[in-house]
Design goal:
By secondary structure, the chain is mainly alpha-helical. The chain has helices spanning 2-22, 30-39, 58-77; strands at 45-46, 55-56. Helices cover 49% and strands 4% of the residues. It has a two-stranded antiparallel ribbon. Mean pLDDT is 74; it is low at 94-105.
């Protein structure tokens, strides 16, 4: 049974990585926020380099993402920034997050 749970977590992580790679910041940052809604539980815990204490909740995660994504979108919109992943999604570097099962808000 544990293997099935691990397999699901690995599959979800790969799907998330693929979706991130396929999202296009030039179209807007909303795609990334939708991914947070789709793949993370409502009680997700996140931390940043500037805030070592974990912050709980999907709204906090989306707030952190916005602070990161909005400047990239603005640069991409005016043609001053391009980002491309050089690794195929199945070889993506693992994220330092853990996938937790639970109700998604």
């Amino acid at each position: 049974m544990k293997t099935l749970t691990v397999d699901r977590a690995v599959s979800a992580e790969r799907a998330l990585n693929t979706a991130i790679v396929n999202a296009d910041i030039t179209r807007g940052f909303e795609e990334y926020l939708a991914l947070a809604d789709q793949y993370y539980a409502g009680d997700v815990e996140v931390s940043t380099d500037t805030s070592p204490e974990p912050m709980a909740g999907k709204d906090r995660l989306k707030s952190i993402l916005l602070r990161f994504l909005v400047p990239f979108h603005m640069m991409a919109e005016v043609g001053g920034c391009g980002c491309r992943s050089t690794k195929p999604p199945d070889q993506a570097i693992p994220l330092t997050s853990s996938i937790r099962s639970g109700p998604s808000n």
